[in-house]
Structures are given as C-alpha cells and as structure tokens.
Specification:
Strand content: under 5%
Bound molecules: zinc ion
Strand order of the largest sheet: 1-2
Shape: elongated
CATH topology of the largest domain: Rhopdopsin 7-helix transmembrane proteins
Number of strands: 2
Number of helices: 10
Helix content: over 70%
Distance between the termini: 39 Å
Structural class: mainly alpha
Radius of gyration: 23 Å
Order of helices and strands: HHEEHHHHHHHH
C-alpha cells in the first residue's frame, strides 16, 4: 500500500512540472497596462477608488523617504494597488470569458470574489483554524514534556527532540499567520512574507524529518544536516525576494522539499515498530492527497472555494493528528530511555 502510494506520488510529481508552466493572467499586457493606468488615475473604467488619492498634498510617491508620506498613507497606497489589481482582474476576466478563455491565475491566485474586502474568505478562515489547531497542538505538547513527563537528573527532558518541535511550532504558526493575512489581501510585501514563511517551514520540517527519522541525537550530526538545508533555503528566499519572484521555480522547490520529507516519513513508518506509526501513515497519505490538490489546481467554485481552500481544510485534522503523534513519540521515547537508565 505504502509502495503503491509512493509510485502514485512520483507520477503526480512528474505531472506537476508540466502543468505548472500554465500561463498566468498577471503577465497579460492588457492587465498590466490596466493596473499601471489605475495607479495613476485611481480608476478602472468608471469605478474609482478613494484609497488611490494618496498624494493629495502634492508629495511625490516614489521620492526619497524624507519627502514621502507617513506610513498610514503608504498603507493606502497598498490598498490602492490592491483595489486596482482586483478590479483590473475582474474586468480582464470578463473580457476573457466573452472570448471563451478559461479563468487565468493572477499573482499565483485564481480570480476570487471578495467578501467585505477579504479576498479569499474561505482560505482565510481555514488558515486561522489551522493556526489555532497548530497552537493547541504545541501547547499540549509543551504541557506534556514540561509538566507531565519526568525529567532527567540534569533537569532536561528525556525526549531528545523537544526543542526541535518547539522551534517547528514557531515556523508553522508563523507560516499560517502570514498565509491568513495573504489570503485576505493581495499586497506584494505580504505575498513575499507568506511565500518566504512557507519555504522556511518546509525547509525546517525537512530538517526535522531527517533528524527524527534517522534518530540523530548528536549535536554535530544535526548541524551537518541543518547547514546545507538552511543554506539552500536562505538562498532560495533571497532569490525570491530580491532577485526574481518566480512562482514556477518556487513551486518546484516546495514540491521537491515536501515530497522528500513525505517519502522519508512514509519509509520510516513502514519500517518502524513505533506504536503510533499508523498516525504517521494517515498524515503521510493525507499530506500526499493535499499535495495532489495543489497540483491539480482547479479554479474556484462560486468564486470562493478552490483546491487550495480544500487543501487548507484537509490540513486541519492532519495537524491535529500530527501533534498527537509528536506527543506519543515523546512519551514513547521517554519510556524507552527511562527503562535503559534503570
Ligand atoms: Zn494558503
């Protein structure tokens, strides 16, 4: 079963590299011209946006910082850009639909309908739920290792991976936080923060997967794993933020790092005699299913629910189960280590 799933997964992985080359709406010159025009005039067609009146006192928008307007005005600038992109996207999609074209993606996202100014309300709500489940999982783990399980004579936990899981929770909560913000507003800076946080989380969880699967307890061995991964992830994040924001490349990097850790955990779960290996199987299968949803990405139903939103819904129970595995793992390792010392 596990081997079959790995094959399915590899086939899907192969497909993703072909499918992701699909054209994106934000590269469309008509759309680009519309956004540029709108940022100057504050209007798309006969719709005008109040956020775009940011240089009312005549200060230049792109002059040196001491001549620029205060931060809240810059926020308005961001809002202006967001309103412009949104309405240019709607008008462009309307035109494209008339010409019989399928919906295109803009800045890596499908054309969604906004509700109360929130761009993807379903994904925002689900990201917030993911964040909450992540927080709950971490708190319950923290309480378990620090208050319920016995300590070593040197006042440290028996479980050798406690610290690594605490750091993992910070990466995960940070990523879900920026994901929720990103789904609510289409702003360049937030988009970069979201993508960077996701890459950082994937990189860290890959490191954690290697360290836990191979049961690395020596600091030196862990550093040997951490160094190349953090160098790679840092380079990739710098490249995205300061050189070129390449969605296709980023997806390949994320899928590769995600696939690698899924394969690691899957193989481990097949070999190990760990009492909670079933939980790992479920999370691995669910994680692969979630990745397939990202690969066979479909446009939103009713302008609201797309494959990404469904993926966020799947990750909620998976996150719960994952932390449950982490708690089991800490209890299991602790009991083994106590038996050894007796
Ligand atoms: Zn998301």
């Amino acid at each position: 079963m596990g081997r079959c799933y790995v094959v399915v997964f590899l086939v899907a992985l192969y497909c993703v590299f072909g499918l992701l080359e699909a054209s994106s709406g934000d590269a469309d010159p008509v759309y680009r011209a519309c956004v540029e025009q709108c940022k100057k005039t504050g209007c798309v067609g006969d719709k005008c946006f109040q956020h775009c009146n940011f240089s009312s006192d005549g200060n230049p928008i792109d002059g040196p910082w001491y001549l620029q307007e205060p931060l809240y005005v810059q926020w308005k600038q961001w809002d202006c850009q967001s309103d412009c992109s949104y309405h240019c996207m709607l008008s462009r999609e309307e035109e494209r639909q008339k010409l019989g074209h399928k919906p295109a993606k803009y800045h890596g996202k499908w054309p969604f309908k906004r509700i109360y100014g929130i761009q993807e309300p379903v994904s925002v709500a689900l990201s917030a739920l993911n964040l909450a489940v992540q927080f709950h999982g971490w708190v319950s783990f923290f309480i378990l290792v620090n208050y319920k399980l016995p300590f070593r004579p040197n006042k440290k936990t028996y479980y050798e991976f406690s610290g690594l899981w605490h750091i993992y929770s910070i990466f995960a909560m940070n990523a879900w936080f920026w994901n929720a913000v990103y789904h609510s507003r289409d702003v360049d800076l937030i988009e970069k923060l979201d993508y960077s946080s996701a890459v950082a989380l994937l990189g860290y969880s890959l490191f954690l997967a290697i360290v836990r699967v191979f049961n690395m307890r020596l600091e030196a061995a862990r550093v040997m794993v951490a160094a190349p991964i953090s160098a790679f992830v840092t380079t990739h994040i710098l490249y995205l933020n300061f050189y070129q924001f390449d969605y296709g490349l980023n997806t390949k990097v994320c899928v590769a790092m995600g696939a690698l850790q899924i394969i690691l955990w899957a193989t481990w779960a097949l070999i190990t005699r760990h009492p909670s290996r079933v939980k790992v199987w479920v999370v691995v299968l669910g994680g692969a299913l979630a990745m397939l949803l990202e690969i066979y990405d479909f446009p939103p139903y009713w302008g609201l629910i797309d494959s990404h939103a469904i993926w966020h819904a799947i990750t909620i129970p998976l996150t719960y189960l994952w932390w449950s595995f982490v708690r089991d793992d800490s209890e299991f390792r602790t009991s083994i280590l106590i038996k050894k010392t007796k």
